[in-house]
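Field log, afternoon session.

UNIT: design team B
ACTIVITY: writing a sequence onto a fixed backbone
BACKBONE:
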């Protein structure tokens, strides 16, 4: 099988990002999406057998338990998926000569005491189960597959689309608050990257050819989570409902503001504000 005919495999293909990646990349490449029903990444034998059968040239490893609450409640069970599953994928990629792109998270920085935005060479200090698992998985992947690409992603957002999974995200959370007339509480002392998922997906063709290493792939942001929510309302034409729909939480993170912002200078993404404006314009317009 020549290199060009070998497929591109995406694990976790029934997830929020991966389902959109499959739809985008299959326009140009032979793509095989592997969701939970098709591949149990906690089984090393299943991973090895599947990749040996498919002989991919590249694997985007997106499968993970990203529910931070679930990771705190069941650290052992989620470690099996997030760390050992990544170990199995990395080892199998080496066996079939496939390049690996591992999707990590900005939450590896959620314990850093200094403010962001964090560059790639900043030492992460994770302080949650999910952050620690992603950081450990990064090390496992880089040990077993030194040429792997590690992409640290931010909180992604999008609106619901037919046949695609939509996780809780800032734009959708604010929109639901408006539709249900139910106030949404957002912290004023939390600062984190927010990326329109299609700003990431549409860049992925070029990301496939990155040399091995760690990259921050997401939008930079100078807005607090509350300010970003207010921007969503503004773009929807609902600023006049700000006081009834958004509640500013000034107490959360009062003693130590939460800052998960990453520097994406190397890959140059649109800002979070630009992404919010694009998302609203493409999906919703002004209400």
């Amino acid at each position: 099988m020549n290199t060009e005919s070998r497929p591109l495999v995406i694990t976790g293909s029934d997830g929020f990002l991966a389902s959109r990646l499959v739809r985008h990349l299959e326009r140009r490449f032979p793509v095989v999406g592997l969701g939970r029903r098709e591949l149990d990444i906690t089984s090393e034998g299943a991973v090895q057998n599947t990749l040996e059968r498919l002989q991919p040239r590249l694997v985007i490893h997106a499968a993970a338990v990203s529910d931070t609450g679930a990771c705190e409640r069941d650290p052992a069970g989620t470690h099996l998926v997030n760390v050992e599953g990544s170990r199995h994928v990395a080892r199998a990629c080496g066996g079939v000569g496939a390049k690996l792109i591992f999707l990590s998270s900005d939450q590896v920085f959620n314990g850093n005491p200094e403010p962001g935005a964090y560059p790639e060479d900043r030492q992460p200090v994770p302080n949650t189960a999910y952050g620690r698992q992603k950081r450990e998985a990064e090390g496992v992947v880089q040990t077993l597959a030194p040429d792997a690409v590690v992409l640290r992603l931010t909180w992604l957002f999008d609106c619901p689309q037919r046949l695609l999974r939509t996780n809780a995200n800032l734009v959708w959370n604010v929109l639901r608050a408006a539709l249900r007339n139910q106030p949404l509480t957002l912290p004023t002392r939390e600062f984190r990257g927010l990326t329109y998922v299609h700003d990431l997906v549409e860049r992925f063709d070029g990301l496939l050819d990155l040399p091995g290493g760690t990259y921050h792939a997401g939008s930079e942001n100078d807005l607090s989570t509350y300010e970003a929510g207010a921007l969503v309302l503004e773009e929807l034409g609902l600023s006049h409902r700000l006081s009834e729909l958004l509640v500013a939480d000034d107490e959360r993170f009062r003693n130590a503001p939460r800052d998960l912002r990453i520097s994406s200078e190397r890959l140059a993404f649109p800002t979070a504000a630009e992404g919010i404006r694009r998302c609203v314009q493409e999906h919703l317009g002004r209400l």
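LOG NOTE: The two ends are 53 Å apart (CA to CA).
NEXT ACTIVITY: expression trials, pending approval
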